[in-house]
Write a structure and sequence with these properties.
The C terminus is likely disordered. The N and C termini lie far apart (52 Å). The chain is globular, with a radius of gyration of 17 Å. Strand 5 and strand 6 form a beta hairpin. The chain is 35% helix and 16% strand. With 215 residues, it is of the alpha/beta class. The chain is built from seven helices and six strands. The longest helix has 18 residues. Pfam families: His_Phos_1 (PF00300). This is Histidine phosphatase family protein. Keywords: Glycolysis, Isomerase.
């Protein structure tokens, strides 16, 4: 079976990203910078082969995927299994507020206790292990369904982290010492149910275009 090429993209910036407010499953739109980033990502990928575009159903990922799809005359599909981790009662709070309201749970989260529960809020939180299993399975599922093709999957920072860890065989308990950037382009292959990393963290396309000083 031929490998599947996966272009894994993080959604563009939101206002909550900018102020370090935890989103999780709360459905936050792209801000103006995020819309610019989505358009720049679409332009960067315009000449590349993409056979299928799939995104999380949360609007920050969906809008980023739709920007890529529009330049190609395609429609993006939605998959809720590509959503960000559900953080339960942490969602909607600044990191500083989480630490104040839930000091024990916050400490466990920061210590990367992968099975530690979080308080429930509007939704029941996932442990990191549960989230990792869900996110990686979703990516591999799409890859295994489309051997030999190139897929653009648009998701969230946590999903990208899970893919990176799965591809490199990193323990879930180790600190995240690699960047996970808004509107970054990250490349993987899926072959026989296994993720492999090709390249990580392409963001050159996000630099503002420099105008000719004589124009």
């Amino acid at each position: 079976m031929l490998p599947t090429n996966i272009i894994l993209i993080r959604h563009g910036e939101t206002a909550w990203n900018a102020e370090r407010r935890l989103q999780g499953h709360i459905d936050i739109a792209l801000n103006d910078e995020g819309l610019r980033q989505a358009a720049a990502t679409a332009d960067a990928l315009a000449s590349e082969r993409i056979d299928l575009i799939v995104s999380s159903d949360l609007q920050r990922a969906a809008a980023t995927a739709d920007a890529v799809a529009r330049t190609r005359g395609m429609l993006a599909q939605r998959d809720p299994l590509l959503r960000e981790r559900c953080f339960g009662g942490f969602e909607g709070l600044l990191y500083s507020e989480i630490e104040q309201r839930f000091p024990v749970e916050f400490a466990a989260w920061q210590a990367r206790e992968i099975d530690a529960p979080m308080p429930s809020g509007a939704r029941v939180a996932e442990t990191f292990r549960q989230f990792y299993q869900r996110a990686v399975a979703a990516i591999v599922h799409w890859g295994d369904r489309h051997p030999g093709r190139t897929l653009a999957l648009v998701a969230h920072g946590g999903v990208l982290e899970c893919a990176y860890r799965a591809a490199l065989g990193l323990s879930l308990e180790t600190p995240r010492d690699f960047p996970v950037l808004n509107a970054s382009i990250n490349r993987f292959t899926v072959h026989a149910g296994k993720l492999s990393l090709v390249s990580w963290g392409e963001v050159g396309h996000l630099q503002p275009k420099v105008l000719d000083e004589l124009s």
